[in-house]
Write a structure and sequence with these properties.
Helix content is 14%, strand content 46%. It has 272 residues and is mainly β. It has an eight-stranded mixed β-sheet. A five-stranded mixed β-sheet has the order 2-8-7-4-5, with no helix packed on it. A three-stranded antiparallel β-sheet has the order 1-3-6, with no helix packed on it. Helix 1 (169-179) crosses helix 2 (185-198). The chain is elongated and about 95 Å long.
Length: 272
Amino acid sequence: MTADKRDMVRVEPSLQLAGSAKKLFFSGPPQGLSGTIPLVNNGTGKQKLRSVALRSSSLKGAAQLPLGEMPFFAKLYPGEQASVPGTIVVASSTPPGSYDLELTVGDRTLAAEVHVDEVVDLRMDPSQITILAGGDTSYTRTFIAENAGNVDLPTGAQCEAPIFDSFDLASALVAGINDSDKASVESMVKGILLHWGDLQAGMLVTRRDPLVLHPGQRLSVDVTFDLPATLKPLRHYHANLQLYNATLSVDIYTTANYGTRAARRKAKESTQ
């Protein structure tokens, strides 16, 4: 009987963990815990490694499943040794702190310590809105707020941001010079500064129910935008609201009857 040719093929040993280190270390945000893995090729041919086995009782993978393998690539020639960079990805909501895991290459298992950084990542959808401001000075919009980080994010009940006229600085400079008597540099500078000061038209106040957004949580949130009554009709204004790392761009277009209903309500309330 002829022997199976596959039984005659010599199988080279896999790459092995090198050195006498007792523990490896990885650190960074949950989506990118970086470290190095010491490897040696004790075989007689070029060898490649495409994954590393992981095991942890406290860490989960990106899909909230137990850790199994991490993608990894190393290519070593016979007798070569190297410390090869590697990246472990865990669930994005993993709290900051230190965790233990085991890493296996070939027939050797080594302990590893993972240090997870704090990540603040608030996401708002939409990130830009337009308010067509008519007779009222308050408008409500609905947003989807998501905590994509790994720490709690309290949002509070109110915040403010300056509102600016879309009239740009260059135009304000020209208008300031034209409106001055041009008799002196002092009068022209005064005219420019007056026009620049008019670019800020007041404060945009946002109100919502206070809440704490937990890691991985995604909620629908109603936000009310209170505009100052001093905005001029038939103008374009803009504001940028900042909450943690999230930025909301607000464009405001006032109509010819801006604020009239709000003014009537206020007058009625004052007479009661």
